[in-house]
Specification:
The structure is a single chain. The chain has 317 residues and is mostly helical. The chain has one domain. The chain has 16 helices and no strands. Helix 7 packs parallel to helix 15 and helix 12 packs across helix 16.
Length: 317
């Protein structure tokens, strides 16, 4: 499997690429809203159980085609680790946190994922991860998180445990890609994702079984779970691979800076969540810090494993 030519940073994106970019910015900005709706009636563990089971079963046929699932099975120890750290644990923590904080606040806290990613890269031996600009980004980003948390805590309604849970989610989201990059770069990502979802579904199988006899929740809760599984998980990963194939891995990561804005807007408009001073002042600092913290190194970077997977997905589709 050869690496595709990454799209240049300068120049124009195609209409197809812009359409995929807009779709992904929305799709990965809405999970916070639907998690917030779902946790009103079912537990965070039940949400994860259903989301992973449905999403995994939907993606399984795509993974089976071309041998992606078989390749993932051969690397099962690292796939299991990826599924636990990228899906099973953070999705549970996110649901637990959203029982106590606004969906928009959760989305903004997770805008700090690139900052954690820079620290993880340095801890794993990448000495280029902490250039002067990236260190400045870390400082500014941490300051933005401090402003977000500190100012919102002045109202006396911010749960400190929920804040810790969200920070752990951000850390998991930073460690997961590091596992994929270092241990699963040779495995088609569609196989990794499908198997990871099914691994998480098996881990939560007792929860799924126990919830069967509890009766059906309200229709809007069922709809929220289906959106999380089918749109925010299964469809999202397929579209993300296509976006990388169209626009390149560098441009594709820019959705990280758009998703939180979508989360905040939906929280305010749909759920009536307040637009706090913490959000107004902390949001720009977190995004600016994340941008600086992820400035590419001057030396050429190794082939992006996600970009490699995008080539496979685009070819097999």
């Amino acid at each position: 499997m050869s690496a595709p030519a990454a799209a240049p940073v300068t120049g124009h994106m195609s209409r197809r690429a812009w359409g995929l970019f807009a779709a992904m910015s929305l799709i990965w900005g809405v999970p916070y809203l639907f998690i917030k709706i779902a946790v009103t009636e079912i537990s965070p563990a039940e949400i994860v159980a259903l989301r992973t089971l449905i999403g995994g079963l939907v993606l399984l046929p795509l993974a089976l085609r071309g041998g992606a699932f078989r390749a993932a099975l051969q690397a099962w120890p690292f796939v299991v680790a990826f599924g636990v750290i990228e899906m099973a644990v953070p999705w549970l923590l996110l649901g637990l946190a959203e029982q106590h904080v606004a969906s928009g606040f959760a989305g903004l806290m997770l805008a700090s994922v690139p900052i954690f990613g820079t620290v993880v890269a340095f801890a794993l031996g990448d000495r280029t991860a902490l250039s002067r600009v990236r260190v400045l980004g870390l400082v500014v980003g941490i300051g933005g998180v401090a402003a977000l948390v500190g100012l919102d805590s002045l109202t006396g309604t911010l749960d400190p445990i929920a804040v810790v849970e969200l920070l752990l989610v951000a850390l998991c989201y930073a460690i997961g890609p590091a596992i994929a990059s270092r241990k699963l770069a040779h495995v088609p990502s569609m196989g990794v994702i499908a198997l990871s979802l099914l691994v998480a579904a098996v881990l939560y199988l007792p929860v799924t079984i126990s919830s069967v006899g509890a009766g059906l929740p309200q229709p809007h809760v069922i709809a929220s779970v289906l959106v999380l599984a089918l749109v925010c998980t299964a469809l999202a990963f397929v579209l993300f691979f296509r976006l990388i194939a169209e626009a390149g891995p560098v441009r594709a990561t820019v959705i990280t800076f758009v998703n939180p804005a979508v989360a905040v807007a939906l929280g305010v408009i749909v759920l009536g969540e307040p637009l706090t001073w913490g959000i107004v002042l902390g949001f720009p600092l977190v995004l600016l810090g994340s941008y600086w913290a992820t400035r590419p190194a001057r030396r050429p970077a190794p082939a992006d494993p996600v970009a490699l997977a995008a080539e496979d997905t685009a070819r097999d589709a």
